[in-house]
Design a protein that fits this description.
9-stranded mixed beta sheet, YbaK protein, ligase, EC 6.1.1.15, alpha+beta, ATP-binding, 5-stranded mixed beta sheet, aminoacyl-trna synthetase, BirA Bifunctional Protein, domain 2
Length: 567
């Protein structure tokens, strides 16, 4: 393609409001243009990259026996009502009515639709397993769209769904998709890690996220420094390795603490380390009050609570609810002398303290010399806190370290969550009706576009990995008014196209500095420049990710590219 025809409005300066490199470079290089908050148009260069990403995705999905379909973005609301997600999904689900007042949603995902699609077709074990996938636009009404296409309200996603007759088949499908995802991200040149994760609103059991390692990632990866164990921070597990020291002989003591509410205030008032304090937080879980207790230096993890109670309805109690259930405002609550109407659950680390301090469920009052086994109301120990760097990993090997990551893929074992609710059954070998056993597998295609740039850029622009690049080569005729340069540029353009390369040819009447700046900004894998030695048939070849410039004769160019740059 001749660059004079390329619609790519570049920017010299970093746009206001673009906080991360991928957003800045996508705007500067003319890849995207914002239409509304979290909604973008993808311009030709970006669309070419998306096409390249989709090609890799399709190749790996087809290799894994996937069949591509295309399902509607507008989904009947009754399907979501049948599955129970119409209300559970929350305000991110975009709801609308048609002219006949029928309810629809704009699909953020397609579990309900695909289950409805196959329920009457995959009706025999002889038709299983099956794997369907699509690449399609999704919609989520994000509260705070930000970071460009990284967290947007309209985005492209590859979602796939497997259907098996039993758990063994699901495990095989899951492992096949896991391997396909590893292949996809490797081929796209990404440094990534697969981590254990929470299934969230989609539901299911085993699940892994694929994280591209990046300092701008919104997710925190907790990983062992001595093994391959890794998990999203929100579900990273803590083993029950705590032992109770000798019980305190001191009697429970009530102490006046006027105005001492925060855990830091309590530590200062009693001159006690955080490890000796019990922090209590009242949650409402499915309308049941649950008092969660951890040590002062730790934080309660509401995702772990949600998984323990197998519900998405977990929230921190309001001040009014705290007063109603515990008789005191937040800041003075605790697990001593709590009524039976409130469940008490303590983190494993609480076991390690037998002479601690906690709120007394009275205004301006705390207890000293608290021994959980002696003084707490009826309670159980569970893993309910966020891990910290240095905590032991659950596989018994090493301790936790942290890294930031961008989630680009997620694989779930759904089991029969949707097939049971939507009546998707098949007849097994004995003629007995059984629910289909499902898995689902998503890749954020437009998010991958940003994630690739986050890992592959420098101060001058983007550095596209070969498989994601919008063009293979950038051919630059430095001075098209020079006859030798112009003729060589046109000759090489034709030669490279005939050799199968996708070429962007810059023969614009622009200053050399403008051309080279644009070339670095676009970040195509290789730049070939026709300059001062064009009359000798000599061009300069520069890989975008190297500082080295090679002088190559035009007759040797194809061989050089094949030997050095095609890999």
């Amino acid at each position: 393609m001749k660059q004079q025809w390329l619609f790519s409005p570049t920017l010299r300066d970093v746009p206001a409001g673009a906080d991360i490199p991928s957003h800045q470079l996508m705007l500067r290089a003319g890849l995207i243009k914002q239409n509304a908050a979290g909604i973008y148009s993808y311009l030709p260069l970006a669309k070419r990259v998306l096409n390249a990403i989709e090609t890799v995705v399709r190749e790996e999905m087809n290799q894994a026996n996937g069949q591509e379909v295309l399902m509607p973005a507008a989904q009947p609301a009754e399907l979501w009502q049948e599955s129970g997600r119409y209300e559970d999904y929350g305000p991110e689900l975009i709801r609308l009515k048609d002219r006949h007042e029928r309810d629809f949603v704009l699909g953020p995902t397609h579990e309900e639709v695909v289950t409805s699609l196959v329920k009457d077709e995959l009706n025999s074990y002889k038709k299983l397993p099956a794997l369907l996938y699509q690449i399609q636009t999704k919609y989520r009404d994000e509260r705070r769209p930000r970071f460009g296409v990284m967290r947007s309200r309209e985005f492209s996603m590859k979602d796939a769904y497997s259907f098996d007759k039993d758990e063994a088949g699901l495990n095989e499908s899951y492992n096949r998709m896991y391997e396909a995802y590893e292949n996809i991200f490797r081929r796209l040149g990404l440094d990534f890690r697969a981590v254990e994760a929470d299934s969230g609103a989609i539901g299911g059991t085993d699940t892994h996220e694929f994280m591209v390692l990046s300092d701008v990632g919104e997710d925190t990866i907790a990983y062992s420094n001595a093994s391959n164990y890794a998990a999203n921070l929100e579900i990273a597990a803590i083993p029950d390795h705590y032992e109770a020291p000798k019980a305190t002989e001191a009697l429970l003591k009530k102490t006046a603490t006027p105005g001492v509410k925060t855990i830091e205030d309590v530590a200062e008032h009693f001159q006690a380390p955080l490890e000796k304090l019990f922090k209590s937080v009242l949650f409402i879980i499915d309308e049941t009050p649950v008092l969660a207790v951890c040590l002062g230096g730790h934080e309660i993890n509401d995702v772990k609570l949600s998984n323990l109670y197998n519900t998405v309805h977990v929230r921190t109690a309001t001040a009014e609810e705290t007063l109603k259930h515990l008789g005191v405002e937040p800041g003075f609550i605790g697990p001593v002398h709590v009524g039976d109407h409130v469940e008490v659950i303590a983190d494993y680390a609480v076991r390690s303290v037998t002479d601690g301090i906690t709120g007394a469920n009275e205004a301006d009052t705390h207890y000293e010399h608290v021994d959980p086994h002696r003084d707490f109301s009826s309670f159980i120990y569970r893993d309910i806190r966020l891990v910290q760097a240095g905590d032991p990993a659950p596989d018994g090997q090493g301790t936790y370290q942290f890294a930031k990551g961008i989630e680009v893929g997620h694989v779930f074992k759904l089991g029969t969550k949707y097939s049971e609710k939507l009546g998707a059954n098949f007849l097994d070998e004995n003629g007995k009706s059984q629910p289909l056993v499902m898995g689902c597998y998503g890749i954020g295609v437009t998010r991958l576009l940003a994630a690739i740039i986050e890992q592959h850029h420098d101060e001058n622009g983007i550095i596209w990995p070969k498989k994601a690049a919008p063009f293979d080569l950038h051919l630059v005729t430095i001075n098209p008014k020079n006859e030798a340069q112009y003729d060589l540029g046109e000759t090489l353009y034709k030669l490279l196209l005939e050799a199968g390369y996708d070429v962007l040819h810059d023969n614009r009447k622009e200053r050399p500095g403008v051309k080279f700046n644009d070339s670095d900004l676009y970040g195509l894998p290789v730049r070939i420049s026709c300059g001062k030695r064009s009359d000798e048939g000599i061009v300069e070849v520069k890989p975008r990710n190297e500082d080295t410039v090679h002088e190559i004769h035009q007759n040797e160019l194809l061989a050089f590219l094949e030997a050095n740059l095609n890999g």
